[in-house]
Amino acid sequence: MKYIPRLIFWETTKGCNLRCLHCRAIPEMMTSREDLSTEEGLGLIDQIVEFSNPILILSGGEPLFRKDIFDIAEYGIKRGLRLSLATNGTMIDKDMAKKIRDIGFARVSISFDGAKAETHDRFRSIPGSFKAAIEGIKNLIELGISAQINTTIAKHNYKELPEILDLALELGVDALHTFLLVPVGCGVDIAEDQMVSADEYEKILHWFYDQSKLHSIDLKATCAPHYFRVRAERILSEKKAGLKPTPFIPHGTQLKAGHVDKVTTPPHPPTSPQPSPRGRGREGQGERGHGLSAMTKGCLAGTGVCFVSHKGEVFPCGYLPAKAGDIRKERFQDIWNNSLVFKNLRNPDLLQGKCGVCEFKHICEGCRARAYSATGNYLSEEPFCAYEPSVPTQSMGTSNVGQGFSLAEVESAHTEAEGVMPELSLSWSQDAKDAVMKIPFFVRKKAVKSIEDYARGRNIAMINIEVVQEVRGLKGGERV
Ligand code: SF4
Ligand code: SF4
Question: What is the pLDDT of residues 192-208, one digit of tens each?
Answer without folding.
Answer: 677 888 899 999 999 98
